[in-house]
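2024-03-11 09:14:02 INFO worker-7 job=invfold-0412 stage=load source=structure_tokens
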């Protein structure tokens, strides 16, 4: 059974940092890219960051570039999202998700699309106070 367990959320002041973790199980971890998404109240879920199956390629939404860093540890089957310089607009429920298919040059650029993912974690809440 595929499982993704997101953790690490919490309440932090603006300018602070958090590190989210996504622990994966039930599939060959090294074969699939993992994405982080977030959904704020009243808004649609949006792609935040993505790391390719081998970790060689990373992508970020413009809103988080330079502040967030994604990484993965194959031995621990875990993907991390280090979030620095947090802003109140980063407040959201954060989800990690497993890419539906293996990557190719032509499809890796589709990482921000929700339908590219087949399994989702339960979400971890990040609240940034001003």
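2024-03-11 09:14:09 INFO worker-7 stage=emit residues=130
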């Amino acid at each position: 059974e595929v499982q993704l367990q997101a953790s690490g959320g919490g309440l932090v002041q603006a300018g602070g940092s958090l590190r989210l973790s996504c622990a994966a199980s039930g599939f060959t971890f090294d074969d699939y890219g993992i994405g982080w998404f977030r959904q704020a109240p009243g808004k649609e879920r949006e792609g935040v960051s993505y790391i390719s199956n081998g970790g060689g390629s990373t992508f970020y939404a413009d809103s988080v570039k330079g502040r967030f860093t994604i990484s993965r540890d194959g031995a621990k089957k875990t993907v991390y999202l280090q979030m620095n310089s947090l802003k109140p607009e980063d407040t959201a429920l954060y989800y990690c998700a497993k890419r539906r298919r293996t990557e190719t040059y032509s499809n890796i650029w589709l990482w921000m699309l929700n339908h590219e993912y087949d399994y989702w974690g339960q979400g971890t809440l990040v609240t940034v106070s001003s």
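2024-03-11 09:14:09 INFO worker-7 stage=report msg="The mean pLDDT is 96."
2024-03-11 09:14:10 INFO worker-7 job finished
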